[in-house]
User: What shape does this take?
Amino acid sequence: MPQIWPIGGGKGGTGKSFITGSLGIILAGEGYQTLLIDLDLGAANLHTTIGASNPGRSLSDFINKKVATLNETIVPTPTPNLFIISGAMNNLDIANLAHEQKMRIRREIAKLPYDYILLDLGAGTAFNTIDFFMISNFGIFITTPEPTATENIYRLIRSVYFRKIRQVLDVHHFRTLAKEAEEQNSKATVTNPDLLLGMIKKLDPEKGEMLEQELNTLEFGLVMNQHRNQDNPNIGKFICQIIQKHLALKIQFLGNIAFDENVHLAVVNKRPFLFMSPYARTATDLKECFKKLLTMKDKSSGIPYAVDQVL
Ligand SMILES: Nc1ncnc2c1ncn2[C@@H]1O[C@H](COP(=O)(O)OP(=O)(O)OP(=O)(O)O)[C@@H](O)[C@H]1O
Ligand SMILES: [Mg+2]
Assistant: This one.
């Protein structure tokens, strides 16, 4: 079963595609069979970060039933061991995805024969984005040090957390419990998830226990991208502490990735940055981030980042 890493961020332009492409190149270089899937709603441009030209096939072909399996939309890239499913050609294709189609995509992704599957998700808390986070109990969040980006990342992580809760408790049951909890304690609202969860456990111990166990299997990583010398090096760690405290979620800081003008140049030249500037600080940072990701994986051995039971 593949390890699936959904990669998202609260704000556009933080570097999700750049980091998805770069991690893919590192994984492939380590000999892992790696597949990148562009699930960005608006701007499907993942292929440019790995120096691949626009492939003839895309997710649209699967959505529009031109091909029967997702497997048929996979194309090789110039990097050995690295493959890609390009984003939907027509925004409407993916923006209008019906629930059943989304489930079909998720089921198909889980069956694909790769060691690692990295999902480049769109920015923000759109329903589609959050849904694709549900495919795995692991996830990587990308932010930059700007306050707008860090605020958005907190919002995104909170949305993913609540979506998980709603997945364990059906929506109706969740609403009933949440309403009761708020009646008993006006602070136990969705803006206060830890308190709310505590109340749910009191109101329905069996479901509360199940929920807690499910949330315990979740593990996330946070990357601080486009980090400049003048930026505080500890913001990422700080955000993780806040998230752990308020959401009781396991989230590990994966490191700062330095800002480098050459990233833009690499995109313009359609060459992977890691091949163009292999000794740059940003390249070293990306490799460090990758090492931490693998340690996280080892630590949780026995709990593969598997597809959840909804599938
Ligand atoms: N570490 C970095 N240093 C300098 N520039 C960077 C870095 N990371 C990303 N960029 C630049 O930021 C821009 C946005 O990057 P990217 O497209 O990867 O972001 P994104 O989060 O996928 O955006 P979108 O939300 O539009 O999909 C690109 O022009 C890229 O070259
Ligand atoms: Mg992108």
